[in-house]
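User: Quick sanity check before I run a bigger batch. Here is a single chain. Can you write out its predicted 3D structure?
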Amino acid sequence: MDRRAFGLSAVASLAVAGCSAPKQVSRFKGYDGPEVTSVVVNKGARKIYLLSGEDILREYEMDLGFAPLGPKEVEGDGKTPEGLYQINRRNPNSAYHLSIGISYPNAEDRAHARALGKRPGGEIFIHGEPNDAKARKRAARVSDWTAGCIAVSNEEIEEIYAMVKDGTVIALRE
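Assistant: Done. Predicted structure follows.
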């Protein structure tokens, strides 16, 4: 290849590289610190705590369901559950940036709802902000905007998603 052809090839390569999309920052973070052994949700204080044994590793502010007082009883009540559950799944394709699932409803929750002649509901997650722009604007204006989930910022759910493993106990308290 002669010098002229080499020079044109180099210029073309640089031009194509300049047209590429900006580098995306991954929402999947790594974590190599102490194991998160439990998650505590204090609904009254609007706080989530990630613990390793008795030590608080992280603390986050949160939003809850649109009717946050009291435990979740039935589908559509807008309440966030109370009690002991586990982190049991994760959704990287969530409508809310990222999300991790809570094992609600348990057998007791189902029996309680059945006694009321209702369904217990489900699909309770800790999640980030809505992906939909209109929903994100609404969430920014209103506190306790979810249907019963626990919402944090996108940066915070990325950290929680990395730190908290499936099977971790989560205690939700008033």
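The beta strands are 38-42, 47-52, 55-61, 83-91, 99-102, 125-127, 150-151, 169-173.

User: Great, the batch can go ahead then.
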